[in-house]
Write a structure and sequence with these properties.
single chain, 450 residues, mainly alpha, 83% helix, globular
Length: 450
């Protein structure tokens, strides 16, 4: 299994570099005017210098979290509770993050993130289950801050302070998407180097993440200006407005079902991949990096598909591929004899589907969700997502469930079937709206000609 892991990583990395270079070159050709703006480039670097360090710190913790808990002597049922606490804290406490950032300052909240996440990493040194639970809670909140406060600060500075065109935000997000994949791959290799090659153990990547976080905080304090939200709204008001939008629009409701079912499977796979592959004794950091390479390949494949087809083809392909991968795991992840090679292949296919999914679902969300309610609607989408993840992990890792992992894969297959059913209902509604818009444009053009 060890040799297969390294060979797979080498082959996938080569494929990834070829596809990514091709898609990035095509994108740069259409974005040359933006790239050549020196003030915009300087502003991007100011943002990236802090944000990328935070991303590295986050990715470093991915490969060896489950292994660390196992080394501390905890059973799989206890580890499932730790993961569930992280999911729950992300949705319960992390939901408030955008409102707190608007009121007390987004720069300040980014600094708070670096402190909270550093504390969460430091708590991993303890073998106390209670301390680890508290640390997982801190980690869940910190993750929510990472993916809300940094971006909110950037968008405000981009539009309000520097007065750059809004269209240029896509240029920054494109670079972040590219670099995020690269940083995740490098972080997996770094984690593997520390934990296995240098034999420092699974705690080493978490300790390495702390200086990355602290430096990120220092950069923010030294180079970022503070900004606040322009509209102060009550949490209750925002939640009700978002819930009303979901209830009034069948398309938004179906989109929420798609995101909740597909992404809850992703949360479950995050928990499952280590115990499923552990019997083969692979290098976990290299496995993690291989997963990140596959996600990057998936993102590039979406770019290629989008040139010939719309996002509906991409998202159907991604969910179908994910369903196929989970079916493989459901068959071959038997508790008495796990076929680690086939499960590893299935995980790689699944990660490719994840890359395609996130690229295509973003386009779909922009066309369906009104911009004024994106924040509250996305918060509501996370509620069923995390409830599903927590319930499945807690129930199926009770001592009575001997086939826990295998049953979770079966549930993943059922959830992905639900995703496909929701897509089958949503896509015709979107296409119907496109046809109506096209008819209105043609009708208006005809009237003007007359």
């Amino acid at each position: 299994m060890m040799v297969i892991t390294y060979v797979a990583f080498a082959i996938l990395s080569t494929v990834c570099m070829i596809i990514t270079a091709y898609t990035w070159r095509a994108y740069q050709a259409s974005a040359a005017t933006v790239i050549n703006n020196p003030n915009f480039t300087k502003f991007q670097r100011q943002y990236f210098s802090a944000y990328f360090l935070a991303l590295i710190a986050d990715w470093l913790q991915g490969p060896y979290l489950y292994q660390l808990y196992r080394e501390y002597g905890f059973e799989q049922a206890q580890i499932a509770v730790l993961y569930a606490v992280g999911f729950a804290s992300a949705v319960i406490l992390g939901t408030w993050a955008p409102l707190v950032a608007d009121k007390y300052g987004r720069r300040n909240l980014c600094i708070v993130f670096t402190v909270i996440y550093s504390i969460a990493c430091f708590m991993k040194l303890s073998r106390s289950y209670g301390v680890l639970l508290l640390g997982k809670m801190f980690g869940g909140v910190a993750t929510s801050l990472l993916f809300s406060s940094y971006e909110a600060w950037y968008i405000h500075e981009h539009v309000e302070t520097h007065d750059f065109p809004k269209e240029w935000i896509a240029e920054t997000m494109k670079k972040i998407s590219l670099w995020n994949g690269f940083l995740a791959i490098i972080s997996g290799i770094m984690a593997n180097s520390l934990a296995e090659w240098l034999e420092l153990g699974p705690i080493a990547p978490f300790i390495m993440a702390i200086p990355c976080l602290l430096v990120s905080g220092i950069v923010i304090m030294g180079t970022w200006a503070e900004n606040y939200g322009t509209q102060q709204m009550k949490f209750k008001t925002i939640c009700i407005a978002g819930l009303r939008e979901i209830g009034d629009s069948r398309k938004i409701l179906l989109l929420g079902a798609i995101q909740s079912t597909f992404e809850s499977v992703l949360s479950l796979i995050v928990f499952l991949w280590t115990p499923v592959l552990a019997p083969g004794h692979p290098s976990l950091g290299i496995v993690f990096s291989s997963f990140m390479v596959c996600i990057t390949i998936g993102t590039s494949l979406h770019e290629l598909l989008s040139k010939q087809y719309n996002y509906s083809v991409s998202i159907l392909s991604s969910v179908s591929l994910a369903f196929f991968a989970c079916c493989i795991c459901a068959v071959f992840a038997h508790p008495d004899h796990v076929n680690t090679r086939l499960c590893f292949l299935a995980f790689l296919l699944y990660q490719i589907s994840v890359g395609i999914y996130f690229a295509s679902i973003g386009e779909m969300r922009q066309k369906i969700v009104p911009e004024s309610h994106v924040q509250s609607i996305m918060n509501w989408f996370r509620v069923p997502l995390n409830i599903i993840s927590c319930v499945v992990l807690l129930l199926l890792h009770d001592e009575e469930f001997r086939h826990g992992n295998r049953l979770i894969f079966i549930i993943c297959c059922i959830l992905l079937l639900c995703t496909l059913l929701c897509l089958a209902q949503l896509l015709p509604l979107i296409n119907e709206k496109k046809e109506e818009d096209s008819y209105e444009v043609l009708h208006a053009t005809g009237n003007e000609s007359a």
